């Protein structure tokens, strides 16, 4: 199909003789190209170029104009965004401009080696000569164009509407374009560029301002507010307020008129599934499942324990049998006998038997007591096990001194383990007694016991949450009004002591001569600071252990108990949650004051930080810049003010502009503001009518003229619009 359309365009191109000019409206937003004498352009597309990479082949592809959304899945556009050949309203990227012209001529059907038709191309008012020269060079050298003519788009629109009786020979054209706004006065049908003015504000800034306001208003939907969507919202909903201050007051007071002017955009929203509390049957079913799973786990653990006990019993039998064999071997042959078994000596074998015996007792659940002989006479056992402990050092050899130190270390370690074991046994006994008392209380009054347990759980949970908030609070001082605490209140006792020591040292150093370090007492500061007193931070929190115990206990006796996760306590204690689930109202985009606040920058650019005049003042500036000082001429100019350009389509533009100009003109001055028949296409249509005139070639220049006269001649080049 694409091949057939290419043949049809080529045939259309061949039907036009070489004397028919090609008309190009090179706007900063859209590019339009067609034949002179026609009323509609043949090709219209956005004046941008993208060079994404194909995901499958990795090849870089050049795409001119808008990219089809259905084709986005085939290209990687993250590294190459859309690029425009314009800087404001002046062409300066001619490499991109060449891509656009190639695409435009190809769509028009001119895919040969050169373009044999004269070209009329539009430009902005007072276009820099460097841009005009580069454009002429591109058309002459690259495409072989026989002749080129440049004209201002706003002037073509004014002349086209003058032909249809919309405006007069004397008047002013105001053109709020894509990135700039121009004001050009006309006297006797010719533009007076000395009286023109320009502001760097246009439709792009209105769209971007609307996108920013909506993104700030709905930050969780910022990805939906693309530039293209903001452009559609602007064209569909924005309007010019007759009186900005009164319109703002209307919305501030919340009147009925403001509600009628508010528009809503509903985004797709899927309601979250509602959580239904479980029924008694469901609770009982889940409790039965948990009990079944617990029974299965207990059976698996019991089977594993029995298997482990059997393995250790077999190992102990083997080790004892090996020990009996060692008893029958002579002392000198023991190392050789044990070399194949992996043991180096009889003592190592006996130590292994002792360890396996202790592990077996632990697995069977037997009491972990020391042998009876150790309990009855520990001193005698120590004397046998550590014979060098009570021997004086002066009668020992250096090797014996080393053995004595080793025996002292082993004895201290063994005594420490014994004390720890006794402490654990005491804790287990205390825990068992407490469980028995709680069980008796539960049997006496189950309801009262459950309520007391739930109150304890809530109290401990509050303490744990409070500690977590103190640790994670990001406030830097104690004047936080949101309920937080300062850094000093989050520090532990040891950390506060270190800060006190540092502050004292710094305070003492500030008094007179710095003598810190001259006394031995000064160095005690480092010992105190390096002292590890953060036991409360390093050791496990007792509240968390108590919370885990209460939680497990409640799960045993209360099937409806649900353990609270972190963050739920702050919501139940009356604090405002940091994140709340989005509702249907959050997906409803309210466009109220933004409807007229964004287009207001055309009249007050200072709202977005641009210190320039608005549309109404531009007309007065153009009148004051004219060399004529005639009251009749000023009245003729203000009686024919034409609005053209995309932003003139906004409702209320003519009335607001007429009101603004009336405030800066003398009382009784005739003021008439009209809008072009088609503010978007009238520039191309006016250029098409101008190029269809027989005298068009008299306004164009050839490559020979460009080569002979150079850039200085292009500086003063200007077509005569009265031929239209």
Automatic annotation (TrEMBL):
Residue ranges, annotated region (Disordered): 358-391, 412-450, 468-492
InterPro entries registered for this protein in UniProt: Actin (IPR004000), ATPase_NBD (IPR043129)
Residues spanning the membrane: none
Keyword annotations of the record: Nucleus
Main location per the UniProt record: nucleus
Subcellular location: Nucleus
Biased composition (Basic and acidic residues): 414-446
Keyword Acetylation: no
BP-aspect Gene Ontology terms: actin filament-based process
A cellular component term, taken from the record's GO annotations: nucleoplasm
Similarity field: Belongs to the actin family. ARP5 subfamily.
Name used for this protein in its record: Actin-related protein 5
